[in-house]
Design goal:
Elements (H helix, E strand, L loop, with lengths): L1 H13 L27 E8 L6 E10 L2 E6 L4 E6 L5 E3 L1 E3 L2 E3 L11 E7 L5 E4 L2 E2 L6 E15 L5 E13 L7 E19 L1 E4 L2 E4 L9 E14 L5 E4 L7 E11 L6 E10 L1 H15 L16 E2 L9 E16 L32 E2 L7 E2 L10
Parallel strand pairs: 1-21, 16-22
Antiparallel strand pairs: 1-2, 2-3, 4-5, 4-8, 6-7, 8-9, 8-10, 9-20, 11-12, 12-18, 13-16, 13-17, 13-19, 14-15, 16-23, 19-21
Pfam family, one: DUF4249
Organism: Maribacter algarum
InterPro entries: DUF4249
Length: about 375
């Protein structure tokens, strides 16, 4: 499916602005030094969560392609989480565009964890230890549709439709609390792969000469029920300076734009984070807000908690965060929405099954490959139609 591949590629290419050039020093607070984008820079984003299947590591490296600086996922790294108190080491497995721990992995409040990485070229990356705080539950989640939810620079600039997601939670008294929100949205997929000038064979798109008068691509249906996962375009954080010990209601944590009219499940993740993590995300939020979103080039570098232990002058950009996590989910029926979606879907074209000019066996399905952006695990709250 072309839309799937394009969006996944876009996320891989530009999500590094999410950790927007960070540089380790002895300073406590993040700063914004002058920064020149160049080839070979390493960008890392990582969260170790108290919720299973919420922990991950992404590693990207900057490169110059056709005169444009982009970032590509680094394959073949050795990655693990280390429990500083017990010495337990949890190895992560490489998947598409990320490294993931075992499905049953989670951290506990009161523990300290760190991230260790060795890149294929031998370069080592380590984080400072991160403490896991207590979980603050989400009390309620609400979703509201707005035909003019947000302004986007498309077709000369206009307001586009979508859903605003808000939550209620009770802030603990007598302690300073810092929060960071993200979400996953799940939409059902009918087609898992699209091969351009290629056919699906042996688990990959195999280039072939497309027969005359045939389409330049073929779509392949998912072999099982499969869901695409999207992530937010912006950063939402909060400190309880003016709400310590109070109930916070209808706090907006994300916008779900109407990319298509598929029904979706939204799963909000509320992270309780340390003051150092909050300051990092605060500077990052300012960078994103002043740079036209996560897809914009970073205007400045951002100090995180990662370093190369073998070279003090080799800066590693990004952050490892151990996060006490609570979640809340809701199903959104978008069947009766009248506004037009934002994404364009190419016509579905299947590989011919009779008198096919292509090498056998004729194929119509592809696997729902499990990764951070796709899953065959039925989302909580999903409602079959």
């Amino acid at each position: 499916m072309q839309v799937i591949e394009k969006m996944g590629f876009r996320y891989q290419k530009f999500i590094v602005v999410f950790f927007a050039s960070c540089m380790l020093s002895s300073c406590i607070d993040p700063v914004e030094p002058e920064f020149e984008f160049k080839e070979g820079l390493v960008f890392v984003e990582s969260i170790a969560s108290t919720v299973t299947k919420a922990s991950f590591v992404t590693i990207n490296r900057s490169t110059l392609e056709f005169g444009v600086y982009v970032v590509n996922f680094v394959e073949g790294a050795s990655v693990n989480f280390e429990n500083v108190g017990t010495g337990e080491v949890v190895n992560l497995v490489e998947t598409r565009n990320s490294y993931l721990p075992p499905d049953d992995f989670f951290v506990r409040p009161g523990e300290e964890w760190k991230l260790n990485i060795q890149l294929p070229d031998g370069k080592r990356i380590e984080s400072l230890p991160e403490s896991v705080l207590d979980v603050v539950p989400i009390d309620n989640i609400e979703v509201r549709y707005d035909p003019e939810l947000a302004f986007r620079e498309i077709l000369g600039g206009k307001f586009v439709p979508g859903h605003q997601v808000s939550i209620d939670f009770s802030d603990p008294a007598d302690t300073e609390n810092y929060y960071y929100w993200t979400y996953k949205s799940f939409e059902n997929l009918d087609y898992c792969e699209q091969c351009v000038e290629a056919i699906w064979r042996n688990g990959e798109c195999t280039p072939v000469e497309i027969a005359r008068f045939r389409s330049r691509y073929f779509d392949y249906a998912c072999d099982v029920d499969c869901w695409r996962i999207r992530f937010p375009e912006s950063i939402t954080i909060f400190d309880d300076r003016f709400s310590n010990g109070k109930s916070v209601t209808q706090f907006p944590v994300g916008d779900l734009l109407l990319f298509n009219k598929e029904n979706i499940v939204i799963e909000v993740q509320q992270f309780s984070i340390t003051p150092a993590a909050y300051q990092y995300y605060k500077v990052l939020q300012d960078i994103v807000d002043n740079s036209s979103g996560l897809n914009a080039p970073p205007p400045a570098a951002l100090i995180g908690n990662l370093s190369n232990p073998d070279d003090d002058e080799d800066f590693v950009f990004g952050r490892f965060t151990a996060a006490a996590t609570s979640t809340a989910s809701a199903f959104i029926n978008r069947t009766f929405i009248e506004e037009s979606p934002l994404e364009f879907r190419d016509p579905i074209i299947l590989e011919p099954q009779i008198a096919s000019p292509y090498p056998p066996p004729a194929t119509v399905i592809a696997p729902c490959s499990e990764n951070r952006e796709r899953t065959a695990v039925r989302p909580e709250k999903w409602e079959s139609q």
